[in-house]
Specification:
mainly alpha, three-stranded mixed sheet, two-stranded antiparallel ribbon, 8 helices
Length: 174
Amino acid sequence: MPLNILTGKHIYKWRSKILLHPVYFLFHQLVRVWRTVNAKGSLIGDFDQNKCYYAYSWYLTLYGEQLAPFQFEAWVHGPVSKELYHYYKSYGWSDIPQYHGLVMVDNEMVAFARKIWTLYGSYSADELEQMSHKEYPWQAARGTCRYYESSDTLLDVDDIIAYFSKNKDFFISA
């Protein structure tokens, strides 16, 4: 099981090379790609966070386990993982460096990442924000908060699974 991204324990050594855990590599690569595509937004903006949220939610729903040990909170602009936010915020507007270590990623994970990109890659930050605001997990966690009020309430895992389970045809048909 992968450990918290902030601890550094997701990095392993193999034959004197750095080996990054596949889950962290997936998030790292997806955030890099999304940052490149979304040059107008900040790295840790809702564009990146929403796509990570959708990857996390679909994986949790389809495979019954977390893609990564992250939790998403109901922030104003959509679901946000504090772990990802703090891990990547130091880059600000700068490019994220390319990872040059070894990664062992199976074909299933590659196919899953491609599916997430197929489903959400063409949406703008505003479109993704509006999508997440219409979905029950975010709405339930926001509760009675006004639109502009900050919140650190966690999205409920059971709400995520229930919501995305009802929409499996969307994922499968893409």
